[in-house]
Design a protein that fits this description.
By secondary structure, the protein is an alpha/beta fold. The chain has one domain. Helices cover about 50% and strands about 15% of the residues. The chain has 12 helices and 8 strands. A 6-stranded parallel beta sheet has the order 4-3-8-7-5-6, sandwiched between helices. Strands 1-2 form a two-stranded antiparallel sheet.
Length: about 250
Amino acid sequence: MSINKFPIFNVELSDINPDKAYSFLDNKQIQTPSYMLFPDLSVLSDSTENKKLAHIIDNASLAMPDGKPSEFIARLKGYKEVSTVSGYKLIKRLLAESNRTHFFYGSTREKIKKMEEFLYEYCPDSKKILGFKEAPFVGLDEIEFSNEIKTDLEKINELKPDFVWIGLSSPKQDYLLYHHHSILKNSYCLGVGGVFDYLSGEVKISPDWIKKVGLRWLFRLVKEPKRLFPKYWKIVTNLCKYSFKRSS
């Protein structure tokens, strides 16, 4: 089974949907080690100004659309089966339906502890979850050369998990995946960012009906206006700049 890509802004995303993503991952149809991303509109807008981030997205084994805008653009381009892939739902489905093993890396010790409590309650089969580890706090320009990160991933590699879920903000997690995924010789590394917030219970996930009508951004904005308004404004200005450059 091959995976096509479709262009969106200055990068390419995978022609994929939740069922197809689950099948690829559960059956390990991609060569390991590999890294995979779930770029949302915020990451896509950042990639219009960050050439390295664009390169990282384009070189991912899977770059799965996260959000209705990407799905809408894919449909306009003729990719009728593309739909949003939720990292949160994909983790829960793999834990519930697959025998694959998992490791969770990133975030803070407090959040990791809450995630651990939730996931062991959700998935009592402890053999599927090989561990949790908070990530060190390092700057973006330090990630490539961080011995702490390398040491952490080498220890995780000894456990040979099928999936290593990375929960950091973008572009930190994207840089980490790009520079260090090869340490994890037998694993798929997936950058899921804010999904750790949902798994820890610190952020409430939006109802399915809100996602279906494409208003998740509004739900989140109402919940966190001070944090998200500047972020959303940056998305709008970046994409406007990119569109202007393309048309000039």
